[in-house]
Amino acid sequence: MNNAEVFDLILRYLVLLLLPLGNLFIFYAVFTPLTVQPVFFLLHLLYPQTQLLENNTILFNGYEAQIISSCVAGAAYYLLCILNLTTPMQLKKRVLSLLFLLFSFLFLNIIRIFTFALLFEKGQNFFETAHLFTWYFGSTFLVVLVWFVNVLLFKIREIPIYTDIKNIASEIKF
Questions:
Q1: Which parts of the chain are beta strand (E)?
Q2: Which of 16, 90, 98, 102 is most buried, most CB within 10 Å of its CB?
Q3: Helix ranges restricted to H, 86-138
Q4: Alpha-carbon Rg for the chain in angstroms
């Protein structure tokens, strides 16, 4: 490994250590408004009387939907960052990949929350079942789906963490 590769490796893992500080504050600070506002907009299209209240609560058609931190899914954004930053790649490819990962997940998450708001209005029993199912399985599926689409789209052949360890091990001379 040359000096630039070593610097890149150290910088990537240092960023990964700094990102979760403050209980993933940066992810929630960025993605909460980027999630709440589009959901509000979509609901407002269907229900013109829709209001955005305090604490990220949306009042629509007589129902209240509060978008809490679990809905925003800051940990999922962090996991996508982990996958991206633990995979060796050129800077331009990394930035484009990271943007794709974050905004694809954001788009899918907005659609998910909007759909659940509509399900809630149609029937709370169905909502509870669908919500619990996606809570346990769907969120993981979304992250995996977005990552694999990213791998295909950006032709990523390296394996997160493993490729870094393999590269370091090949440099160690016994």
A1: 51-53, 57-60, 63-66
A2: 102
A3: 91-122, 124-133
A4: 19
Secondary structure (3-state) at 75: helix
DSSP state, 169? H
Domain-wise residue ranges, the chain: 3-166
Tally Cβ neighbours within 10 Å of residue 116. Answer: 17
pLDDT for 101-124, tens place per residue?
999 999 999 999 998 888 887 777
E strand or H helix at 65: strand 63-66
- What mean pLDDT is reported for the chain? 91
Quick one: 113 exposed, middle or buried, by C-beta within 10 A (0-12, 13-18, 19+)?
Answer: buried
In the chain, the N- to C-terminal Cα span, in Å, equals 16
Length of the chain in terms of residues written: 174
Distance CA 47, CA 88 (A): 46
Q: What are the phi and psi torsion angles at 89 (to 5°)?
A: -165, 165
